[in-house]
């Protein structure tokens, strides 16, 4: 089975010949949830920008559903939905109109739009806010709108950057339950988050980025095997992350 997302030997960044990312290799299979973790400035956002086509690789290749970034851009971009860390809404559109605009942009039928939008509004407790403008919404509610727009599309791949920021506990629960249900139908997720205790429970694998390089990758068991830890010891993702970063800094001091 081919991977939904394949990043091969990626070098990239903002300045020529000064790559932020150095030989990054990441794969994502159908129905898989992968956590992308790292310190601030590790290269997570830069990696995501390259996947989205907002930045062109200096070297290497990125494919989604066997389509390269440089090929069939319209089909490439319709293969994923992206939820940014900071909500970006149109001030002149209501919540419902944002959903309608997304449905039109992606060619979603009226019947599918109605069923999906009503379900999402209910799941995220936004029914009473459906006709409100962004100025009338809290930051958490704005984040819900971004999430609902992404889930409305139902693409094979979701790229989500810090999804839990600003969400209340019930909204977090709705988000995680919705992602779990979509996974059962084959959707894949790449999630960048600092909330390690939460993604530890839901992600199948993890990629640890540090100074633009992948320093650890795999399941919890595989990450633990890469450290000097008793395999029978119950070590949290947070503890393993700390050890991987410490180990990398010891080997390559600044």
Automatic annotation (TrEMBL):
Pfam families: ABC_tran. Residues 5-236 form the ABC transporter domain. SMART domains: AAA. InterPro entries: AAA+_ATPase, ABC_transporter-like_ATP-bd, ABC_Transporter_VariousFunc, P-loop_NTPase. It comes from the Bacteria. Keywords: ATP-binding, Nucleotide-binding, Transport. The keyword Protein biosynthesis does not apply. The keyword Ribonucleoprotein does not apply. One of its GO terms (molecular function) is ATP binding. Coiled coil: none annotated. This is ABC transporter ATP-binding protein.
